[in-house]
Amino acid sequence: MRLVDYLDKGASLGGDAPCLVCGEETWSYAEVIDLSVRVAAGLRARGVAPGAKVAILSANDPVAFASVFGISRAGGVWCPINPRSEAAENRELLDLFGCSALIFQASFAGLVDQIRSDLPELTTLVCLDDDLEWALTWDDFLAAPDDTVVPAESVEDDLAMVVGTGGTTGSPKGVLLTGTNLETMSAITLMSYPWPGAPARPTYLALAPLTHAAGVLCFPVLCLGGKIVVMRTPDVGSFLEHVERHQVTHTFLPPTLIYLVLDHPALPSTDLTSLRCFWYGAAPMSATRLEEALNRIGPVMAQLFGQTEAPMMIATMAPGDHFRDDGSVATERLSSAGRPAPLVNVSIMGERGSLLASGERGEIVVRSSLVMRGYLDNPEATAEASEFGWHHTGDIGYLDDDGFLHIVDRAKDMVITGGFNVYSTEVEQALMRHPGVADCAVIGLPDEKWGERVTAVVLPRPGTSIDVTELKAYVKEQIGAVKTPKQIEVWPDLPRSKVGKVLKTEIKKKLV
C-alpha cells in the first residue's frame, strides 16, 4: 500500500466521517482527500516527479500531516524532518536525502533561510502559514493548473519514506522504508492490539511528534476510518483533557511523558474509561512505574518495541499480556518488551552468527518484511546491519522460556567493571524502584581500578530529596555490590533527544 491508500481506505467507509481534529477545527475524510489531491497537483505542477523526495518541517499540525498523503498521491517520498533539531543537522539530512521540495511552517522560516543556499537540489519551498519573499505561499502552491495530471496508479518503486537516524553519534543515516515495511507494521498493529468492532471507529490522540512514532501509528487508525486528534503542543494537562473530551481510544507516549501523566494532579479526576490501548515505547519504561500506570490509568497499557530500521513492531505486548490468567499483574513480564510480533522472526545471536538458546544473552536480530530496504547511499552500513542474513538491532537481550523478549542494554551502553558485564538497564530498573527517583541514566566512566565504574545520574521526584548513601544501599540490596553504582549524581534534569530519550553521550561529556 502507498501511504495515501490508508487515507483512501478510511474514506471508503464514509467520506463525511471526521478524519483530523485540532482545537475547534475538524476535517472530514472527503476534505482531507481533496487537500491531498491539491497538494499532489501542486507538487507535479512544479516538476516534482514520481520518486522525488519531499520534506516536511513542522510541529504537530493537521494540514502538514495531510500533506503527507499529497506527497504519496503524487508518487513522491515523504522525508519527515524533526522540528526540534538544529539547523546544521537538518541541512545535513536534507542534503543527504536529496530533497527537491520542502513544506514548512513559518516558525521555522529562519532555520530554512539559513540553510537553503547550501541545498541546490531544493528548488521548491512552500510556507504553510505566512507570506515570505523567497517561498511560495500555501494558497499559491495549491493553485495548480486545472490540467495538472496526477497518476492514480502506484509508482514502480515501493519507497515510501526516508527517515534520519538522528545523528547523536556521528553523521546521521537515511533509513529507506518501503510501503511494504509500513504495511507490515500496520498489519501487526491491527493484529496485536484491541480495536473497537465496526461500526465503532477508533479515536487516536497524537501528542508525541507526528514526525516519529505518533505519525506512523496513524496509518492503521485510518484503515478503520478512525479519527486523529492532533495536539499542537505537548502539554500533559491538556492531554488528559483531550482524552476525556474526545473519548480517545488509542494514544502513544514515551515513558518520560507517562511519568508526568502519573504525577499530574488532574489524573485522579479524569475520565479515562474510553481508552482501549495506551501505547508506550521508544525507550525502556520503569517496571515500577508501569505497574503504577496499570493501577491508576487502567488495564490498557500496551508496549511496542522497534527501531527506525524496523518500525515500531519487532515485539508487542497487548494490554492483556500485562496480567496473569487470574487477573493479577504479571510483574515478571513488565520489564520485557513483549513477545516477537506475528510477522517477525526474532533470534538472539552470538559470535560469528551463531543463534543462542532461550535464556542466553546476545544481540537481538530480526528477519521480517518489517525491516528496511537499507541505508540511503551507504552500502557498507547496510551490509553491516544485515550480516549473516539477519537485521542487527544493536540491542543486547534474551528470550525467556515463555517467549518474552528482554532487552538488557544497547551493546554500546554495557559497562565492563572489574571484568564483569553490567547492563545499564538492569541498574536503571533498580534505581527507578526507589520512591524518590523520577528518572535516571546509568553509564560507565573510566576508572583506574575497575576499568569502568558504574555511574548513575538521577532525577528526584518533585518535592523529594535523594540521600546518595541510602540510595546506594537500596540498589545493593536488590542487585548486589558489583552492579551498584559507585558514583551517583543528583541532577535537576537529564539531557534528552528530540523524542525524549536520555542522551547518555551528553552525560558522559559532563562527567568525564
What does this protein look like?
A hairpin with a 2-residue loop joins β14 (301-307) and β15 (310-317). It is built from 16 helices and 26 strands. Helix content is 30%, strand content 26%. The longest helix has 17 residues, at 29-45. The relative contact order is 0.09.
Brief summary:
The protein is of the alpha/beta class and 512 residues long.
User: End-to-end distance, in Å?
Assistant: 49 Å
Read across the widest sheet, the strand sequence of neighbours is 2-1-11-10-12-13-14-15-16
State mean pLDDT (0 to 100 scale).
Answer: 92
At the third CATH level, what is the topology name of the largest domain? Rossmann fold
Rg estimate, integer Å: 23 Å
Main CATH class of the largest domain = Alpha Beta
Shape: globular
Which sheet architecture does the biggest sheet show?
Answer: 9 strands, mixed
Return residue spans where pLDDT drops below 50 for at least 5 consecutive residues. none
List the helices and strands and how they pair.
Layout: H1 3-12, E1 18-22, E2 25-28, H2 29-45, E3 53-57, H3 62-73, E4 77-81, H4 87-97, E5 101-104, H5 109-115, E6 124-127, E7 136-137, H6 138-142, E8 159-164, E9 174-178, H7 179-192, E10 203-206, H8 213-216, H9 218-223, E11 227-230, H10 236-246, E12 250-253, H11 255-263, E13 277-280, H12 287-296, E14 301-307, E15 310-317, E16 339-340, E17 345-349, E18 362-367, E19 374-375, H13 379-385, E20 391-399, E21 405-410, E22 415-417, E23 420-422, H14 424-432, E24 437-447, E25 451-460, H15 468-479, E26 487-490, H16 504-511
